Fold these 2 entries.
Entry 1:
Amino acid sequence: MNDKLIWIKNRQFQLQGNIKQVAPLLENFTLDQVSRVERFHRTYGQFEETPLRKLDALARNVGVNQIFVKDESYRFGLNAFKVLGGVYALGQYVAKLLEKDIEELSFEELKLPEVKKQLGDLIFISTTDGNHGRGVAWAARELGFKARIYMPQGSAEERLQNIKNEGAYAEITNMNYDDTVRYTSQLAAENGWIIVQDTMWEGYEEIPLWIMQGYTTLMKEVVNQLEEAPTHVFLQAGVGSFASAMVAFLQQYYEQDITYVLVEPHAANCYYESFKKGTEQSVNVGGAMHTIMAGLACGEPSPVAWDILKTYTQVSISCEEEVAATGMRVLGNPIGSDTSIIAGESGAAPLGCFYTIMSDSEYQDLKEVLKLNTTSRVLFISTEGDTDVNNYRDIMWHGKYPTT
Ligand SMILES: Cc1ncc(COP(=O)(O)O)c(C=O)c1O
């Protein structure tokens, strides 16, 4: 596929009926719910908010009013937002075993030896491209439990090592992401391990929902950091849990209309293909899914995420590898007095798409469809820093990245 961007406008699903259908899901992402999650995260001793950067020079350069980038590379010293989901899910799981409400507990209380004594050795298992598994391994270690983390074929050694450094058992399989998820769920069933996966399937809903809720702390921070509602939010999607959690909260928090744009790599564009097909059911894409955007290399939408995203997404974009690299460079080498942001491949892809739309006349029609102009306030979440330093340097210093 040679097109830098391919895109599709969601005409199919923006119907009143769908919004009603999705309403029960939204109850999990009200301000009240999101505030409870944030309260729990803030009980972690070293908790710190991540910065929201305002890129005024870039906004002037491309012709929009404001650009904001939430920099999740600062999250818990783990270089990515994902730990927010893992730590909240483990917290909820342990609280449930203790027959307590998480609202009565702090992260520090869960670490007490009495808790471990009462619950024994719990083993958490998960599949990851790197960031989610590192978060689960970190949370398990902090709470005194064990983690077993499995990665798809082609995962970076550095990401594997980062997980091992958290004391977890970790290995790279010879399967793609979605097959590795099936494999770990089988291992969990056979051994009585607890699967902590950031995607949902029938009969496995509670933990993925906690993970989605966990992510919302970052958006709760954003709405406090912003003075006005954004007009546009660009969100990257792997299985879609992250993007759908953000949308579910923002839709309820702001009264103003927001234009949501979904971004995926060509190699794993299951949302794009689902919007293109235009049926109620999402579609999957398979194969090896080679992409530098490792966090987005998932070919099967999480069903709850699809229900939310098919209702609220205006445009779904599938992008070339080069577009993510452009996003990394634009963020890393800013103009004027804008702050430099170290954004990894999956973190920078949405800004790369936006920059391409604004600067490449070939995408004038998309710019018009999205009504991106001098009144727009555009929000991005840089979901990871340089989680694979070698790849980051290859791209930034040498202009090299594997082509698909
Ligand atoms: C850095 C980064 N950004 C975005 C995502 C996408 O999240 P989701 O799979 O929930 O769509 C991931 C997933 O692992 C990720 O690691």
Entry 2:
Amino acid sequence: MRAYVDQHTCIGCGLCAGTVPEVFEIHDGGRAFATADTTEENADLVEEAIDSCPVNAIRDEE
Ligand code: SF4
């Protein structure tokens, strides 16, 4: 499973990348991307990032 960031909604605050940097990166356009899959090890942090995103731009994808 990999998280998905809605590029039209993300405001590039960096919170998700700060919470779980092995999954989320801020790219040149100033928006976050999920660059790695959610694993058993980081699932709790990914969930925290999803819950903490101020604009609800992240969701879990299959
Ligand atoms: S926490 Fe939300 S708004 Fe902030 S960079 Fe991540 S996806 Fe974008």
